[in-house]
Amino acid sequence: MNARIEESATAEGYNFAYLDEQTKRMIRRALLKAVAVPGYQVPFASREMPLPYGWGTGGLQVTSAIIGRNDTLKVIDQGSDETTNAVNIRRFFARTAGIATTTRTAEASIVQTRHRIPETPLTEAQILVYQVPMPEPLFRLEPRVTECRKLHALADYGLINVKYYEDIVQHGSIATTYDYPVLVNDRYLTSPSPIPKFDNPKMHMNPALQLFGAGRERRIYAIPPYTKVKSLDFEDHPFSIQHWDHECALCGSHESFLDEMIVDDAGARMFVCSDSDYCQERRAAQEGA
Amino acid sequence: MYVAVKGGERAIERSWDLLAVNRRGDEAFPELSVDQIREQLRLAVARVMTEGSVYDEELAALAIKQAAGDLVEAIFLLRAYRTTLPRFGYTVPLDTQAMQVERRISAAFKDIPGGQMLGGTYDYTQRLLDFSLLAEGGLRACNTDAKLASASKQEPKQEAMPRVLALLDKEGLIEQEKMHDDAPEPGDLSREPLMFPVERPVRLQNLARADEGFLLAVGYATQRGYANSHPFAGEIRHGEVAVELEIEELGFAVEIGDIEITECQMINQFAGSSKVPPTFTQGYGLAFGHSERKAMAMALVDRALRAQELGETVAAPTQDPEFVLYHSDNVEASGFVQHLKLPHYVDFQSELELLRRLRAGMEKEAQHEQQVPHVQQEPSEENAA
Q: What ipTM does this complex have?
């Protein structure tokens, strides 16, 4: 699905990729700072977008600021290109920037995502843009932004260690399964956005540039290529990811993150890859073989 | 057989079509025009302009029509449009003392220079449904005097009315709100992120575009003891003021139009200190159009948020700038609350997996305990005694 739309088809009366060049410059400055200080949340003058806050306005602004005419964009939500919000955002850029879009991870130069990192490994030539609802990894423990900024300045992350210790005492393990905080470059505690902790290891030493945009909260942060990213844990309770007793019912993968579907009134379950492109590629390869 | 969910694109397009049909309603009735909304739903238009941060009655009316009367959605439409507009510059501060007043009241003094002016207000209507409006007649039995008064609006009239608070100022009874010569330029909330600590100009910008319902609730809470601010409605005025823009090439300000606004100045108590004699303090509210509820609630909240600068104890959430200012914007709040409609399959699946694992763990433990029952602790003799 490589639909290049004629340039004349870009939305009339709007700049390339919607935002005006001044705004893009402001966002690029924030991005540069974010790359220079990995994991640090840079405040930026987020704009109202023609999409509601909380629906990807941060990711939208980051993509708008970095996208060029030769880019190929992939947009996923929950790992899938076909969920309505992903469709909506992909159409938005096809319409306002007239760029090529794709559903194939390997073909994309920019992947905008909500809640997943693609299963297919990314390359140095790619940029992953995350939509972030709450950029502050400590917000459930300390809702005050001013306090959290102090804690980050002092690298004082005792709060979260205590929380995880209490989890272990109460439940036998850390009870965070998504938006599982990471320490970036041994310095800043950072929210990976609400990806499942299953995806956390993919952030570590990733060859692709990872950019995070939180529109409503007006923050941008970044993980540059080949940066150390460590999920919080304890020596005697090491970090671990989710595992399923099932395999993907469509492609048979044992390695991917599985979505659970309820397929009949009796509550029968079916497990399928959440990454629709990964699943599709595997099935195509199996059919070809 | 499960088929991967596809066709989001077509579903979205069909959804747009349905929305248009639903918005239009029964075609047996004539379509609502933007002019009708602008002229006959003027209070809705005022709210959309205020919280949408654009003074444009026509666009606000259009937004209301497009949103089928959902004002928060209309406000969002206007904001999303506003953000694409270029900036020509900043206007000269409005001189509200020079307002062509249509209504002006003070609850602090019985009589004031310029007089109390009731104007058109719902305040003393008796809230009985007026069934004659069902008949869609013209202006019912309304006094020709009122029509005349309304018509005479166009004519230049009355002299400027001095502000009530200026009278108190002469006695030194109210805190001075004069700008220092070296005061820094006020920040611009629509161009810079909200950062703390936040100065009053930016706080007021936030409150001006804040959701009326939110301000109303927070302002109401200040009256019920969550912040102690003893308010008096010093003055509420509504009318037209001139907007002036400094033109660089000309070197002077040029009037570019008139806008209708509502201004509220609350007078509040302040104990003073050993060094400063007690004076009244102020809370300030300003809104586009005729929006008294909004302007008054804003003034209450503004005053509550001044707790820290006035050396008061910050004890209530109404006095906490972070709590109030981060949650006041309905475009942000509506978006984030409603984003819960978006798929969260992946997060939910992660939680399911954890819950099942924890429960399996507990079950295993329980089975283990059944097999190896704990030795019941015998009550010791001391306890028994």
A: 0.88
Structure tokens at A272: 């399928």
Residues B231, B299: contact at Cβ < 8 Å?
yes
So what's the pLDDT on residue B385? 42
Task: Identify whether residues B329 and B282 lie together within a single domain.
Answer: yes
Residue of chain B minimizing CA distance to A275: B346
User: B35 is in which domain, residue-wise?
Assistant: 12-82
Per run of 10 residues, the mean pLDDT along chain A (length 289 residues) is: 44 84 95 98 94 94 97 96 91 94 97 97 98 96 95 96 94 92 98 96 98 97 98 95 91 94 89 94 89
Residues of A in contact with B6 (CB under 8 A): 82
Residues B107 and B45 in one domain: no
Contacts of A76 in chain B (CB under 8 A): none
Residues of chain B with pLDDT > 70, as a percent, come to 87
Closest Cβ opposite residue B195 in set A43, A77, A87? A43
Q: Do B34 and B100 fall within a single domain?
A: no
Q: Report which secondary-structure segment, H or E, holds B101.
A: strand B100-105
- Closest chain A residue to the Cα of B9, Cα to Cα: A87
Nearest to B347 among A52, A83, A194 (CB): A194
Per-residue tokens: B374: 């704990």
Q: What is each CA distance from B99 to A102, B158, B163, in whole angstroms?
A: 58, 10, 10
Nearest to A219 by CA among A156, A116, A149, A157: A149
The number of distinct structural domains making up chain B is: 2
Whole-prediction pTM value? 0.89
Residue B153 within a domain: no
Same domain, B50 and B105: no
